């Protein structure tokens, strides 16, 4: 097809030199694709390099402690990706003797691997003609063909996947998939695409009909919920503090945090005094406290916005399990906590 050939030709001239493009090693490709889910290339590249350095093979990753994997992942967010990565590494190393599945269908059996990631690995490593469809691909196809079916609907997912199947170059599936992803990332960008130098300018529906800003179409998601977090940063006279490991399911599962009190609204000093008086850790001894941040720190997640305060509580002696503040950076924490630790400079 003319579209596919023109796209691959564009890619051969314009592609970025990225480490995972210089190999067909499925471990490296899988690792890069998991990291790049929900993450831009410039942000993900240092993490990719760090994982390859610390875990050169799937066997090295499989025998690592989960805490080590989460610590190395710190800053990327969406920590379920790291837990699934670790689980799949164990499965490949222990059940498959280190040999990755080599078909789209079998790759889907890996935890954390969906349609897009399975298609990417199958085509890049094993030359299987299965198309990738991600945000970049949705945008390119929607604009070029004038498709206004919402990309986050089941109908849209099927429509775009079927179209990608029709377009893929079966002799060069890896080149086609990488080309269309790259084209969406650096040419047909979400905002201010450089249409004046686009190789598809003459035949692009969105350009000819002045609909660049209208495509692709996406159904608006529900409004994010507000939550109010109050982290209690205890520090005793011996230089100890308290970190607790989160349990149960959730985005921060198994990560560490300061003791947390949730409230129905942003706490003022009077409201916090009520909270602090209920802490068993402080019973029977003097303490002092202050609010670290003047305004709540807003941490935005896909489904909720966290309005966060860090309350510094100084006390003579802390009860229970504590850690020296100089060791605080050894623990895997959410980026929200990590940023506070660096700024507070224990």
TrEMBL record:
Keyword presence, ATP-binding: no
Catalytic reaction list: Hydrolyzes free adenine bases from 7,8-dihydro-8-oxoguanine:adenine mismatched double-stranded DNA, leaving an apurinic site
Limits of the HhH-GPD domain: 35-186
Molecular-function GO terms, alphabetical: 4 iron, 4 sulfur cluster binding; 8-oxo-7,8-dihydroguanine DNA N-glycosylase activity; adenine/guanine mispair binding; metal ion binding; oxidized purine DNA binding; purine-specific mismatch base pair DNA N-glycosylase activity
Spans through the membrane: none
Cofactor note: Binds 1 [4Fe-4S] cluster.
GO biological process: base-excision repair; mismatch repair
Keyword Hydrolase carried by entry: yes
Extent of the signal sequence: none
Family according to the record: Belongs to the Nth/MutY family.
Function: Adenine glycosylase active on G-A mispairs. MutY also corrects error-prone DNA synthesis past GO lesions which are due to the oxidatively damaged form of guanine: 7,8-dihydro-8-oxoguanine (8-oxo-dGTP).
Protein name as annotated: Adenine DNA glycosylase
Gene name as annotated: mutY
